[in-house]
Amino acid sequence: MSTVLIVEDSITEMQVIASCLKRGGLNVETAGSGEEALAKISSQKPDAIILDVVLPGRSGFELCRDLKSEANTSKIPVVICSTKGSEMDKFWGMKQGADAYIAKPIDQQQLLQTVKQLIKG
Length: 121
What we know:
Radius of gyration: 13 Å
Number of domains: 1
CATH architecture: 3-Layer(aba) Sandwich
Shape: globular
Strand content: 15-25%
């Protein structure tokens, strides 16, 4: 069974995303900050990462760029989920290496489909 790491500092958003993915048959790990996410990724590499942009410490954009520049994490699909939903934000997210960008409030069906497609790769 595939594992998805959710990096989100809002408990409510994290619960919504986690329950959506669990209903879709995926294992879920969570992190509330970029630092916590990096620690989890180094101990157990997830099959995909869902990343908020506004996080304590480093932004999701910075974290995405770092993950995509490292050889051991560059192949992990990253889906950015953010309230920053303008075309410019989406463009910038994709420039950082994100594999998909979904604006909040998320469409749960779209999120699940996107994650599953990226894991199948």
